[in-house]
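Response to reviewer comment R2.3. The reviewers asked that we include at least one raw input/output pair. We reproduce the pair for AmmeMemoRadiSam system protein B here without editing.
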Amino acid sequence: MSFVRKPAVAGSFYPQDPGELQRTVDELLKKATALITNDVSRDSQGRPLRQLMGVQVPHAGYIYSGLIAAVGFQLVSTLRPRRVIIAGPTHRVGCHGIALSEATAFATPLGEVPVDQVAQQYLVEHSSVAKFFEPSHVDEHALEVQLPFLQTVFRDIEFTIVPLAVGDCTPEDVCDSLQTLLSIPGENPDDTLIVVSSDLSHYLGYDEARKFDTATLSQVMSLEYPLDPRQACGAYAWSGLIRLARRVQWHPQLLMNASSGDTAGDKSRVVGYSSVAFWKYNSPEDESGIPDRYGALLPQIAREILTDAFQDDNQIGSINAISKVSASDRALQLLLRSIGASFVTLTNHGQLRGCIGSLAPHRMLGEDIAANTLAAAFEDPRFPPLQASELDQIQIEVSVLTEPKPLERFEGESNESYLSRLRPGIDGVILRRDFHRATFLPQVWSELPDVHVFISQLMYKAGLGGAEFGPEIKLETYQVQAWGEAKA
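Raw output as returned:
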């Protein structure tokens, strides 16, 4: 027997009156417009440089997290998806695996949104963890509160939803389920949008929550999984999206981060919120690397950014490397607008003065260089903030990284054999064990040419000093192109 799932939290999480609800959503989206930049840059062949594939948004009452959610939905408003997968946690009735709904539609005060029953059946037939289980949907708010936003931004198109209530589930299982829905024969995966519903930390003090959530979002930006439910209530669904992003090379972008203490709540016990976009980038037309004629300009641009920061520290948050390039220099503009990861290193008379960077690409290269330049100067915890009097004394080096790749260990391979596959002077190395992580750029090999000393120091940097190197420690490698300032 067919039925429509009725709204469970209308009148509590969001207005029950249709007119009031529509005005509320419209106002939130209007405010969000001023907070985002939807870059539609194109390459020399006219192709968009990136395509939005998914977003993570929060699911508290609209007075608390509505604006943060609206930022994500305002970004997707230019899309025309046929299907929206909404994946979130089970707050009321838990489940093992992924619970689907037998409802033909989900209703809100703004109307009904049809459920894609064909896609759901396809998932059940091709997944070992997806099953129909209505109790997880009846009173669940995490998926429902996203619907009025979708009904508004896609009011002019017909779309269906696949509501996934994700219980105790591995990232691989969720990832496989999402990829199954993106791989239905005869359909274009670009016609499907993924929305993950999750808040961040719960009921910490304002400052503690901000620190905790910043660490979680840093993990997300590096596409590290799994998330723990203490980090995010939608950890299982979000970890699956992160796993998928790693698998298909989508890149995250933090759109907004706040807490209930910033919106309408008490700062003594707050809930954290974020909105994160996941982008698919076009393959570059030339994969041979950045030409030196452009790379040599990057340290100059970084110096201009530092100079601007000292002249007006109130504008630090808006400084961007792209703004330092003439609009007529289209090739360099395109380079800085492409996705990329960078490290910025400051030295003073040959001594390190600051070094901060990104291991995984998660924003435009120009944004990344600007942020890492300022962080190396003012936020490296090993050094005091750079002073204006030092500006003429420092040398700046900008490194642009390739995508990190796992250094796979063969079954039964000895440590000696495994480490012998590292290439001194060529490979940057990321070392991981559980939540411990550290990296050395390839330039560090010049100071630590012995591979055993190199790894020992890297383990110390990761907080694993004294631990033995073994199979539980994972290595990834990457390469860099680096350009330093010409010495006077």
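The two ends are 80 Å apart (CA to CA). Residues 225 and 239 are 6 Å apart (CA to CA). Further pairs are available on request from the corresponding author.
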